[in-house]
Amino acid sequence: HAAVFGLAASYSNIGYMGPALTVAVLGPAAGAPAAFVFCADVLLIFTIWPAMIGEGRRGFARLTQSLRKVVTHPFILATLAALVFARTGWVLPTFLDTPLTGFQNAAAPAALFSLGLTLARNRGGAMGARLGACLGVKLILHPLAVALAFTVFSGFDPIWVATAIIMGALPPAANVYVMARAEGISVPLSARTVLYGTAFSAISLPLVILLVG
Predict the structure, then answer these.
(1) % helix / strand / coil in the chain, to the nearest 5?
(2) CA-based diameter of the chain, in Å?
(3) How far apart are CA 76 and CA 199, in angstroms?
(4) From its phi and psi, is residue 27 left (phi > 0), alpha (psi between -120 and 50) or beta?
(5) Is 90 exceeded by the pLDDT of residue 71?
(6) Residue 211 binned pLDDT confidence (cut-offs 50, 70, 90)
(7) How far is CA 129 from CA 120, 126, 210, in A?
(8) Which residues of 3-29 are buried (b: 16+ CB within 10 A; e: fewer)?
(9) DSSP letter string over 51-92?
(10) Could you count the other beta carbons within 10 Å of the beta carbon of residue 59?
């Protein structure tokens, strides 16, 4: 449950909102830092998440179990497969590419539909304090922490700094719900965090953009 809380409080919507928003606000120069933040976030989160949710014995057994979860996690395997295809130039035959493209296009709508069902089935649960804390960390402390980091480690291009702060202020990604749902951990909390985080970011995000602009 702590792992889901940490994921929801740190995993920004860097895929759908990040690049488009930062380029629209800061100009084309924000494209490179936005892409870097996206790659760094995905690499870090998809590596740490399987290890964080590993359960079992302590010591060496726990370590090997966590490593096995990392290596065999679908996100990691999909990333490795994409790298292989990009590096080699391989192309899937049409009879495989067509249905897989259909699954790809249906993934996001299906995830949002599932999120809506979860919210409808879990109305009124007692999680106000946890939800409020999670949203506070994500929408307020996360961009502040990014800004503080660039204060300590100075010398970066202002566009890179502004891009990183804005992407840190984004609401939680829908993947937070998808990943929590796949493990069956804190599913209602993850769904509400995505929903309310997106709603409240309509207020907090413009303020952050105004401050860094």
Answers:
(1) 80, 0, 20
(2) 53
(3) 30
(4) left
(5) no
(6) very high
(7) 20, 8, 29
(8) bbbbbbbbbbbbbebbbebbeeebeeb
(9) HHT--S-STHHHHHHHHHHHHH-HHHHHHHHHHHHHHH----
(10) 7
Give this prediction's pTM: 0.76
CA distances from residue 42 to 12, 49, 158 in whole angstroms, order as listed: 10, 10, 23
DSSP assignment of 83-142, as one string?
HHHHHH-----HHHHHHHHHHHHHHHHHHHHHHHHHHHHSTT-S-HHHHHHHHHIIIIIH
Query: What total number of domains does the chain contain?
Result: 1
Closest CA to 160 of 29, 44, 42: 29
Placement of tokens 């996690």 in the chain: 73
Q: Which residue bears the tokens 């929408």?
A: 139
Which amino acid appears at position 136 of this protein? G
Q: Output 145 or 74, whichever has higher pLDDT.
A: 145
Q: Give the whole-angstrom CA distance, residue 167 versus residue 161.
A: 10
Tallying the residues shown for the chain, one arrives at 213
Computed from CA positions of residues 7, 10, 14, 16, in that sequence, does the dihedral angle turn out positive or negative? positive
Closest listed residue to residue 135, CA positions, set 188, 178, 195:
195
User: The domain containing residue 168 runs over which residues?
Assistant: 2-105+112-212
Among residues 64, 13, 84, the alpha carbon closest in space to that of 42 is found at 13
